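We both want to read discrete structure tokens more fluently, so let's practise on a single case. Once you have written the record down, we can walk along the chain together.
***
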Amino acid sequence: MRKTIAIVTGSMRPNSAGAGLLPTVQAAVEAADMTATVVDIRTAELPFFNDSHTPSQEGFAPSDPAVQRWAHTVATADALIMLTPEYNGQLSGAQKNAIDWLHKEWHNKPVGIIAYGWHAGHGAQAQLVALLKKLKARPVVAQGLTFLQDMSTSGEPLATGQAQSSITTLINTIVKGI
């Protein structure tokens, strides 16, 4: 049975570079003989975290159907890839909110990080790595992608950049770890 990698976008913007990068990442996952499942954060309909219990509490069970779908996706995926934009040197609020809804689903889960932005997403990447380690996930970091050097501002990899090789290396590393 083919293993599944869930690809999670991180931007709510209608012209997100992550949405433009998504087809390249999907194709690379499928080329590695893996099944790609996409979670578009814009359409996932996750509410801001508002439960009276924390996800780390024993017996935590979200009642919101969108959160239940999200939890099932993370729990059943063999690995995830987070397409992570950098906003003001930070992780996007929408992606952080999605992560905050879960706890045990992250334990020992390989999570690839493809950060991008004007400064290669370094700030967002560092925050995401620290957060995933706190949740006992296994972060795998790709080379950050810089606008106009590795990818266009609409997300297409540039032939002169390293986007394609970084994505392929990340996926190969994840595949070996699952």
Remarks:
- The two ends are 13 Å apart (CA to CA).
- Strands lie at 4-8, 35-39, 79-87, 90-91, 110-117, 138-141, 145-146.
- The chain has a mean pLDDT of 95.
- The first strand starts at residue 4 and ends at 8.
